[in-house]
TrEMBL record:
It comes from Agathobacter rectalis. This is Methyltransferase. The keyword Ligase does not apply. NCBIfam families: 16S rRNA (guanine(966)-N(2))-methyltransferase RsmD (TIGR00095). InterPro entries: DNA_methylase_N6_adenine_CS (IPR002052), RNA_MeTrfase_RsmD (IPR004398), SAM-dependent_MTases_sf (IPR029063). Its EC number is 2.1.1.171. SUPFAM superfamilies: S-adenosyl-L-methionine-dependent methyltransferases. It is an enzyme of class 2 (transferase). Keywords: Methyltransferase, Transferase. GO terms for molecular function: 16S rRNA (guanine(966)-N(2))-methyltransferase activity; nucleic acid binding.
């Protein structure tokens, strides 16, 4: 696993041993950042369920102004911390070791994010819980882009009642990226 573009291009990243995380493949990551390419430069980026931190680090490498990484696994948080130091993004990032909902509530009044990315464990409806919390949070701007990585069978029918709309969807073999904005 590596950073694929930008100032930290080609730097290898540590990953977590075991099956607790699913690192995003380079091809999927490239597709994701092609969709977000004009949103990333200068952005405040929130990486929820950050795993190894590769998505937030890729955003920083591609010109995001600041990234907050949220991970509740001690082993994964340690990996993120190592990757932040290795890529020299210490001054433009923050790591929070907590769950995503608590992090959103803690960040209120402190940050306004341009992009929120989340890659929660599949089929546990954790993305729904976070989207509900975000729906009345002040960490979103009017045009914040929320990206959820989910299994292909994850249902997002509830988005309209929370005040969101799907602006784009990228479907891969086993998962998808759902691009969401406030309606």
């Amino acid at each position: 696993m590596r950073i694929i573009a930008g100032t930290a291009r080609s730097l290898p990243l540590k990953t977590i041993e075991g099956k607790d995380t699913r690192p995003t493949t380079d091809k999927t990551k490239e597709t994701l950042f092609n969709v977000m390419q004009f949103d990333v430069p200068g952005a405040y980026f929130l990486d929820l369920f950050a795993g190894s931190g590769q998505i937030g680090l890729e955003a920083l490498s591609r010109g995001a102004a600041y990234a907050v990484f949220v991970e509740n696994s001690r082993k994964a948080a340690s990996c993120i911390e190592d990757n932040i130091h290795f890529t020299k993004f210490d001054k433009v990032s923050r790591l929070m070791m907590t769950d995503a909902v608590t992090a959103v509530r803690t960040l209120e009044g402190k940050y306004k994010f341009d992009i929120v990315f989340m890659d929660p464990p599949y089929n546990k409806e954790l993305e729904k819980e976070v989207l509900i919390t975000l729906s009345d949070s002040d960490i979103l701007k009017d045009d914040t882009l929320i990206v959820v990585e989910a299994s292909n069978d994850t249902d997002f029918d509830y988005l309209t009642e929370l005040g969101y709309e799907i602006v784009k969807e990228k479907i891969y073999k086993t998962n998808k990226h759902v691009f969401i904005k406030r309606a």
